[in-house]
Design goal:
Blueprint lengths: L1 H11 L3 E3 L2 H4 L10 H8 L3 E2 L3 E4 L8 E3 L2 H6 L7 E3 L4 E4 L4 E6 L11 E7 L17 H25 L1
Parallel strand pairs: 1-3, 2-8
Antiparallel strand pairs: 3-6, 4-5, 4-7, 7-8
The structure holds 2-acetamido-2-deoxy-beta-D-glucopyranose (4 copies) and copper (II) ion (CU).
Length: 162
C-alpha cells in the first residue's frame, strides 16, 4: 500500500526529459533520420509542466518552436520561440502539440525535428506509461510480500499474547 502511494506521486510530478537521450541529444543526422525523434517521443508520455532538455553546443545547433505548417515545411524562418544556448530547457506549459526543429540550415531536413503531444497531467486523465523512475513490479511485489509477512507475524504475535 505504501509502494502504491509512492508510484502515484511519481506519476503526477513534473519530469525532465533529455531529448534524444543523454548520449545522442539534439543533433542533425540522428541515427535512422527523422524517425529517431518520433520514436524517442513515442517512448514517453509528456504532461503539462514537464521539461524538455535539448542538449547541444552553442553555435552548432539551436532549437525553435514552430507552427505545424512551418514544422512540416522545415521553415525555420518564422519561429514562435527560439533558444540558441544549449542545453535549452523548454517547459511544456500547456496541453496539446509542440513542434520543434533546429533552425540551422538543412538540419531540420536531415531529421533534427521533434513533435510532442502534451497531456493534462492530472491523475484522473488518460492512462500513461510508468515513468522510468517508478519502482519495478518485482520490487513492488517483493515489498508487498514482506508487508504481508510482517502483518501475518504481527497477527500471530497478537494471538499468542492473549
Ligand atoms: C525506445 O524504446 C525502445 C525500447 O525500450 C528502445 O529500444 C529504443 O532505443 C527507444 N528509442 C529511442 C529513440 O529512445
Ligand atoms: C504548471 O505550473 C504552473 C506554474 O508553476 C502552475 O500554476 C500550474 O498549476 C501547473 N499546471 C499543472 C497542470 O500542473
Ligand atoms: C527562409 O529565408 C531564407 C533567407 O531569407 C530564404 O532563402 C528561404 O527561402 C526561406 N525559407 C522559406 C521556407 O521560406
Ligand atoms: C483533470 O482532468 C479532468 C478530466 O480529464 C479535467 O476535466 C480537468 O480539467 C483536469 N484538471 C486540470 C487541473 O487540468
Ligand atoms: Cu542543428
Amino acid at each position: 500500500m505504501i509502494v502504491v502511494a509512492v508510484s502515484v506521486l511519481e506519476c503526477t510530478k513534473a519530469e525532465d526529459y533529455i531529448v534524444g537521450g543523454d548520449s545522442i541529444g539534439w543533433t542533425s543526422y540522428p541515427p535512422g533520420g527523422a524517425s529517431f525523434y518520433s520514436n524517442w517521443a513515442s517512448n514517453h508520455t509528456f504532461k503539462v509542466n514537464d521539461t524538455l532538455v535539448f542538449k547541444f553546443e552553442y553555435g552548432s545547433h539551436a532549437v525553435a518552436i514552430l507552427t505545424t505548417n512551418n514544422y512540416e515545411k522545415c521553415n525555420g524562418n518564422e519561429t514562435i520561440e527560439s533558444y540558441v544556448i544549449g542545453p535549452a530547457r523548454v517547459t511544456l506549459n500547456r496541453a496539446g502539440w509542440f513542434y520543434f526543429s533546429c533552425t540551422f540550415s538543412g538540419h531540420c531536413r536531415s531529421g533534427q525535428k521533434l513533435s510532442v503531444e502534451v497531456i493534462t497531467g492530472n491523475s484522473s486523465s488518460a492512462p500513461r506509461k510508468a515513468p522510468s523512475t517508478s519502482i519495478p513490479a518485482s520490487t513492488a511485489s517483493l515489498a508487498s510480500t514482506s508487508l504481508f509477512t510482517f502483518l501475518t507475524t504481527l497477527a500471530f504475535n497478537f494471538l499468542f499474547q492473549f
